[in-house]
């Protein structure tokens, strides 16, 4: 009796862990176990090798996944190069400062040698972001795979990205449209624990004497901007380490972007910021949950997409 119940519970857990949906060719954990058993280690080793060589690319890989999923779903659209008839997302004048395309190409090449036509570029981006977070000291987590690659990538679609001038209401609204809670939104913003912003994204705060900005930190930002629009300012003191220092910085009114600082200014999110600043484990837990949700945004399953043979081009 007790045994029967236990088995019942285990079976339910199995279903929760292994199946997000039951259609043929749906996303699942361990999707490549049979078809390409070394897919995950190949991506992890490629990412590790690249980041050991250039730690700043960890932020690039995380951003790439985020941008991929927020435009047209997680379908590798961010990787497509422009063609003579189409300007792709990556060539948006907004310059998405995405970096790390070569890492995806390297992993893809190795995977095509091992198991041709099996591992999608969208999955490689999702795995690479996950592995970059872990490499940088962040949480380790599992994501389901089986995303298919899309065929559309249009510069115009990048207007769906988040401008650095957004306030909390606007952030809650846009993330909410994608199914994220306020807590998810703050946790995902914590991805700014990695990387830098360009002066062009925050210089408007300096001219208008933004009252939410610490005056001493404003001097630091001004100094950065003396290097021009492309000069880089780290979001926190440890730009290549995944930790909760980002939240400590915004508590000190030293958030780089308006859209960072607003999370502390606004009473709806300040408590969450304080919680993550105090308790890194809680940030990590909520971050991994939100990343899992993000990695499933509007995915193309089965026949709705393809497995590109070159991540930069749709199959002909
Ligand atoms: C975009 O940013 C990258 C990385 O800093 C830089 O190499 C590239 O020249 C920029 N492109 C444009 C069009 O500004
Ligand atoms: C946020 O920005 C929008 C658009 O500019 C504005 O209408 C709204 O009042 C702002 N909300 C807050 C809380 O500042």
- When the domains are counted, the total is 2
Instruction: Describe the main β-sheet briefly.
Output: 2 strands, antiparallel
Straight-line distance between termini = 58 Å
Percent in strands:
under 5%
Can you give me a brief rundown of this structure?
By secondary structure, this protein is an all-alpha fold.
Descriptive notes:
48% of the residues lie in helices and 2% in strands. The chain has 316 residues and is mainly alpha-helical. It has two domains: 17-160 and 298-304, Peroxidase, domain 1 (Orthogonal Bundle), CATH 1.10.520; 168-290, Orthogonal Bundle (Peroxidase, domain 2). α2 runs antiparallel to α4 (101-114) and α3 crosses α5 (121-135). It is globular, with a radius of gyration of 20 Å. Residues 7-22 have low confidence and may be disordered. Residues 167, 169-170 line the site of one 2-acetamido-2-deoxy-beta-D-glucopyranose.
């Amino acid at each position: 009796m007790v045994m029967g119940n236990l088995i019942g519970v285990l079976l339910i857990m199995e279903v929760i862990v292994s199946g997000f949906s039951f259609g043929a060719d749906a996303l699942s954990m361990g999707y490549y176990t049979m078809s390409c058993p070394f897919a995950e280690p190949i991506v992890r080793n490629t990412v590790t090798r690249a980041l050991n060589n250039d730690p700043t690319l960890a932020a690039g890989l995380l951003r790439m996944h985020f941008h991929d999923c927020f435009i047209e779903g997680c379908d590798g659209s961010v990787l497509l190069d422009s063609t003579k008839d189409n300007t792709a997302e990556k060539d948006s004048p907004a310059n998405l400062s995405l970096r790390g395309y070569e890492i995806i190409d390297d992993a893809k090449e190795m995977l095509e040698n091992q198991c041709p036509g099996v591992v999608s570029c969208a999955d490689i981006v999702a795995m690479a972001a996950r592995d970059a977070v872990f490499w940088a000291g962040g949480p380790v987590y599992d994501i389901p795979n089986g995303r298919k690659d899309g065929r559309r990538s249009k510069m115009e679609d990048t207007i769906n990205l988040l401008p650095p001038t957004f306030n909390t209401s606007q952030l809650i609204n846009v993330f909410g449209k994608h199914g994220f809670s306020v807590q998810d939104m703050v946790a995902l913003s914590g991805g700014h624990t990695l990387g830098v912003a360009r002066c062009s994204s925050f210089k408007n705060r300096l001219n208008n004497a933004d009252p939410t900005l610490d005056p001493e930190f404003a001097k630091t930002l001004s100094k950065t901007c003396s290097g021009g629009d492309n000069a880089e300012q780290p979001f926190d003191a440890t730009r290549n380490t995944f930790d909760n220092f980002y939240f400590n910085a915004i508590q000190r009114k030293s958030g780089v972007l308006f859209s960072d600082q607003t999370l502390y200014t606004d009473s709806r999110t300040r408590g969450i910021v304080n919680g993550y600043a105090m308790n890194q484990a809680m940030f990590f837990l909520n971050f991994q949950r939100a990343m899992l949700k993000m990695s499933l945004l509007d995915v193309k399953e089965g026949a709705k997409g393809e497995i590109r043979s070159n991540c930069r081009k749709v199959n002909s």
